[in-house]
């Protein structure tokens, strides 16, 4: 336990390894939250578009796409904005440096796991509904990501 790790002569890594790993400041964690939502959102958005554009009836496909984007916009602005505000406020109130396990509460991880499980169950839903939901959730997450980035910009380190 008290053993020093030396990579090359004169360079001791032990003090570096004793530091708390995976720590960052408030702005970085809020930005990472937005980045995660943006990546997931773009993946779901493209998946939903791919499913809906493959439908045989292009008129119906256009309506499904328009409806999904509209529902996603409103979900992002009015439902997910509350989550973004709550998580950003929580992160902003934590003392720095913030460790990875301190960033999100357990309820957030449970919600995330439930959403991922529901995403797996979506394979049993008809293609038009599946594409609509993926598109709506994807656009809502992208909207939420933009709100995260705005919160990160407003937070002081």
How do the helices and strands line up, and which of them pair or pack?
Blueprint: E1 6-8, E2 11-12, H1 14-18, E3 23-24, H2 26-53, H3 58-78, H4 80-93, E4 98-99, H5 100-103, H6 106-121, H7 127-154
Antiparallel strand pairs: 1-2, 3-4
Helix pairs in contact: 2-3, 2-4, 2-7, 3-7, 4-7
Can you tell me about this structure?
The chain is mainly alpha-helical. It has one domain (22-154). 74% of the residues lie in helices and 6% in strands. The protein contains seven helices and four strands. A hairpin with a 2-residue loop joins strand 1 (6-8) and strand 2 (11-12). Helix 2 (26-53) runs antiparallel to helix 4, helix 3 (58-78) packs parallel to helix 7 and helix 4 packs parallel to helix 7. It is elongated. The two termini are 34 Å apart.
Record keyword descriptors for this entry:
74% helix; mainly alpha; disordered N terminus; 157 residues; 6% strand; two-stranded antiparallel sheet
Task: Summarize the structure in short.
The chain is mostly helical and 157 residues long.
């Amino acid at each position: 336990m008290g053993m020093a790790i030396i990579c090359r002569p004169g360079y001791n890594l032990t003090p570096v390894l004793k530091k708390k790993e995976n720590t960052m400041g408030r702005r970085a964690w809020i930005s990472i939250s937005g980045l995660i939502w943006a990546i997931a959102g773009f993946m779901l958005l493209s998946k939903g578009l791919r499913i809906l554009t493959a439908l045989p009836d292009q008129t119906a496909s256009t309506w499904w796409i328009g409806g999904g984007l509209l529902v996603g916009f409103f979900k992002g602005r009015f439902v997910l904005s509350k989550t973004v505000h709550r998580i950003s406020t929580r992160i902003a109130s934590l003392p720095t440096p913030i460790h990875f396990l301190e960033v999100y509460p357990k309820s957030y991880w449970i919600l995330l796991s439930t959403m991922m499980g529901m995403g797996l169950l979506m394979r049993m839903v008809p293609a038009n509904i599946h594409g609509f939901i993926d598109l709506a959730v994807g656009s809502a997450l992208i909207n939420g990501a933009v709100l995260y980035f705005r919160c990160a910009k407003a937070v002081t380190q």
